[in-house]
Design brief:
The complex is a heterodimer of chains A (772) and B (153). Chain A is of the alpha/beta class. In chain A, 59% of the residues lie in helices and 15% in strands. In chain A, β10 and β11 form a beta hairpin. A 5-stranded mixed β-sheet of chain B has the order 3-2-4-1-5, sandwiched between helices. The longest helix of chain B is centred in the N-terminal third of the chain and has 13 residues. The radius of gyration of chain B is 16 Å and the shape is globular. The chains are: A alpha/beta (772), B alpha/beta (153). Chains A and B meet through α1 and α2 of A and α1 and α4 of B.
Chain lengths: 772, 153
Amino acid sequence: MRLRHLRHLQHYVAMIMVSSALVLSAIFSVIAYQVNQRVAINDSERQVEGLMAAVKNTASAALFSSNEAVGMDAVNGLLGTEVVYSVTLEGFGDDFGPGLKLTGIHKNGGAPMKTIIMPLESIFDHNDILGELRVTPNELWVSKRTHTTSIPSILGLIFVIFFVCFVSAQAFKIRISTPLVKVRKALKNIRANSDKRLRLPPHLQLNEIGVLVDGFNELLDETNAAFKVEHELRDEMQEVQKHLEQAKADAEKAAQAKSDFLATMSHEIRTPLSGVLGMLAFALNDPQVCNKTRDQLDIAQSNAKALLTIINDILDFSKMEAGKLNIEIIDFDLRKEIQAAVAVFIGMAEEKQLYFNVKFDDDVPLYVKCDPTRIRQVLVNLIGNAIKFTSSGGVNVQISMLELSRYTVRLCFSVKDTGIGIPKEGIGKLFQKFEQADASTTRKYGGTGLGLSISKQLIEAMFGFIEVQSTPGEGSVFYFELPMGRASAAECDEKLKANDIHTHKLQVLCAEDFETNQEIIRTLLEGMGHDVEIAENGVLALDKLVSRHFDVILMDGRMPEMDGLEATKHIRSGRWKEQKVEQSDINIVALTANVTDEDKANFLSAGMNHFLSKPIDEVALHKLLAETIEELLAKGQALMPLVRATTNELDSLFDVSQGVDKQVTEPTSLPSELVAEKLHSVFSNSLPQRINELVQAINAENFEELGRLFHGIRGSAGYLEDPELQALSEKLEGLSDQHKIREVRALFDDFLVRLSPYQTIQTGDDHANNGG
Amino acid sequence: MNHIKVLLTLILISYVPSSVLYASDNFGAIQVIVNANSDVTSMTKKHVMAVFLGRSRTFPNGKPAKALDNKMGSSIREYFFETLTGKSISDIDAYWARLRYSGRASPPKEIDNIDEILTEVSQNVGVMAYVSGQNPEELSKQGIVVVYTLEAN
């Protein structure tokens, strides 16, 4: 209750008191007036009677002597007073005369009053009634008298009434309003959950206010009980909240761990795979490879590429899961891109004796704006499936136009096969993760079951949709529609030949800690005609950078001593070990297997200019370097022009740089065997130092260092095609990461035994007998 | 105001205390006499009173009557009126004072001498007076008749 409401209550009381006072005053005024009037009437009668008594003898004398003048004197004497209205003096008459009748009326007033009659006897004989005197009192006098006596008495009454009412109101205020206000104040001071209760003075405890206060106190008790419950609930809620937050943190941690794991995995898997692909490419470029070997190499290459595809699928999928999938929009030649994508299937179809046609409708635009890589990915997936599940007949790919406007075009891509088809109940599951039409499919045809799920998500990310129609036993049609932008021919012309050497020679600094990767990069770059300097880590790279001129730096992200990010920051700051870094604006290309967008952003924000993912795409590297050359020339930097080098020249360049005996290889061939051998020797050469480092790390229980070392050896073992060593290294790496020093020590001897062949080879030239 | 003065005066007069009664001289019978030619032989006490107090101006036979009084303050007058009315002489005087006050009425003419009274009565018809101790025969010789005799109480 608000205080002002209490004030209202007092107003009510005041109003009631005032109205009562008014009504009472009115009633009492009327009564008082009437009483006063009665008194005045009595007064008038008494006065009149007194006056009549006073003139009685005169009147009697007048009647006795029949003397009119004396009678008139008496009459006028009576009329001379205000209290008399009319006077009649009448003699009855007898033997001595006819009697006298005199009347007089007062000039003011009225006479609805009782007439007072006084018999007049003879003065000399009381038994002789001569006549009578009749006098009527004056109403005017009565009313005047009433007024004059009433006003003070009524005023007094009103005063008394109002005084009583005021006293009553005050009593009400003191007895009711004020206690209520006090109760309200006391209530205000009582907080929930406090033990305070309202207390009242004894005189109020037994009346209605006491009851009210008792009610409040009960309410307070209930409120406190409720408050307690609520408090407990809140505590519980907080507990639950804490658990939830913990769970959320755990989940985020797990997601982070998963994402880290994937990044690591991509690195771990792609690094050896890049080695495989690189080496296969070199081997296939060698004209000396005989046909049978070439076929085997081809198969190896296609398998490796398939593996890369699967890995990329899984990576794409996890990126989609994390919402990190990026769609890039570029201009491209639709026919060229799709023909290049499907080319690989021509051979596959031929092998299975299937027809394979790709048909573009005539109205399909030549150039469009979309993400060619993703379209390719989806098409490859769909066509791959089509061929996989078709044993007779063939596959038709058709690209047709649905809508065309000035800036956009909507295309439909369909892949139709004559394969086993998909049962109706399987279609629903088709685009779900890890689902194939049925489990037997997985057994018979293999596959991760991710392809279609990824395709669907990719198409939807590009604002299209994908659908399938199928009749079991007759075949399936997968088709997807995509909106695209339209592009012109000029924007799509740029096509690079990866194998061409560049127009100018660049001085390239490459910071990369793993020797295998060093070899591949060196081979690639030198093949393009550039000079390469390798640094093992960021510190060495900086040392080299301040000592001489470079045009571009290829920087691995993850290196011992100093990683790529930190090195980049030092370069951009312009100072290194008290020396000035002249080329603080040098082009830096990040080179890493960490391929999440987050990583990309990290690299670029650290000051790196470009980004190349491992395994290194030759075409991308070529393009990037060509752009760098153009950029430097545009800046006016002098670069040494390159004549188109022959394979021989490249070979010799390679040989010289690797320091391998020229006599062992043919000068016109790309020495793939030599590369392998060289890898071998590089590994062997570094082995003593590695082992030394490993022993030190084990003794120091430096798990980080141990992990890194085992990791490196594992990668090398991949290149060296030594799966047992690879497996063992992996195991040891895992144990190191888990800080299990005892298990590491236990396995380390096995590990050394496994390494012994390489030590033998290394020392084989001089100490052939020491092997084993 | 004038009325009130009148009234006050009237009231004052009404309350004049009866003056000390005169010692009742032994007058014996008082004789009310009239002229023999008035054709009146006797009168009632009431009629006598009416004529002497100004109430009546005629005899019972209807002929005009005129009262003569003894001198104011005389014993006979006091005795006569007190005996006649049973009121004190001051009451009688107050009565006449009231009538006189209004100015139009006057009390009977006062004569100081008994002989003169007798003369008046014997010479004028209608005159009426009172005497004491007269021989009625003597009176009738003078043409005067006694019409009422007021005995002492």
